[in-house]
Amino acid sequence: MVNKNLIIYNNKISYILKSKNSNGPKISVVFLCGYRSDKSGTKAIFIENLRKKIGFEYLRFDYSGHGHSSGDIESLLFSNWVNESKIIIEKLTNYPLLLIGSSMGGWISFYISIIMKREICGIIGIATAADFTVQLEKEMTEKQSYYYKKQDILRIKSEYSKEPYVFTKKFIANSKKYLILKKNVFIKCKSSLLYGLRDSSVSIDTQIKLLNRVSHKESSLTILKNSDHRMSSRHDLKVLKDIILNYIKYPLS
């Protein structure tokens, strides 16, 4: 798999773009990964394998500070990843967009759908961590709050990493410019939200609030009883495939 690079705001952004096959649908599928994930995760590769059968244009990339892209993740801001996503999608894709965002990538997908002047046929949000930095502040322990005030750093234990996730006060403040669960935010695109009841990272309340921000009447929330935040089991991926096929109206047996 050939990684290419695009320079955005002095950072090298690594991406993989697969062109549409001659008989493929005229749609650009874009995968936006979660925080500290990358373009080679289980869901990203699953969509790549689906692309081989169907032939749609497919873009996946690493935010700065992630995967093969340059940058120090702890010195970057949420705005970096929003702007990188918008620029690389607008520059490289050629057809109406189907945005698929996992966790933080879901938040970014919904936000850029508001600001991009491109036709978007749909958004699939997988365990969408919309406005997660607001929740981080609310759930700080007394000890975390002390160090946050003293050192401007919030450390969060994660079941997906041996080392804690580190968020600076500057990062959290910057992210508040992009909140999408506020009452004055409305998302027009048809959207499908996927959520697992065993998700210990993002609440179901967040998904319901997000669904209420989507004005398209065909938008939906699918809740899977035995799925966790990763949503990468065989059953999860089957559900994801069915939703993708429904958006691109492709009958795959």
Portion in beta strands: 15-25%
* Rough outline: globular
Average pLDDT reading: 95
Q: How many helices?
A: 8
Major sheet details: 8 strands, mixed
Strand order of the largest sheet: 1-2-4-3-5-6-9-10
| H/E topology pattern | EEEHEHEHEHHEEHEHEH
* Total count of strands: 10
Structural class: alpha/beta
Q: What is the CA-atom radius of gyration, in angstroms?
A: 18 Å
Low-confidence stretches: none
Explained architecture:
With 253 residues, the chain is an alpha/beta fold. It is built from eight helices and ten strands. The chain has helices spanning 42-54, 78-92, 104-115, 132-138, 142-151, 169-175, 204-213, 234-248, and strands at residues 4-8, 11-18, 28-32, 57-61, 97-102, 120-126, 153-156, 165-168, 191-196, 220-224. Strands 1-2-4-3-5-6-9-10 form an eight-stranded mixed beta sheet, with helices on both faces. α2 packs across α3 (104-115). The mean pLDDT is 95.
Set down the secondary structure blueprint.
Layout: E1 4-8, E2 11-18, E3 28-32, H1 42-54, E4 57-61, H2 78-92, E5 97-102, H3 104-115, E6 120-126, H4 132-138, H5 142-151, E7 153-156, E8 165-168, H6 169-175, E9 191-196, H7 204-213, E10 220-224, H8 234-248
Parallel strand pairs: 3-4, 3-5, 5-6, 6-9, 9-10
Antiparallel strand pairs: 1-2, 2-4, 7-8
Helix pairs in contact: 2-3
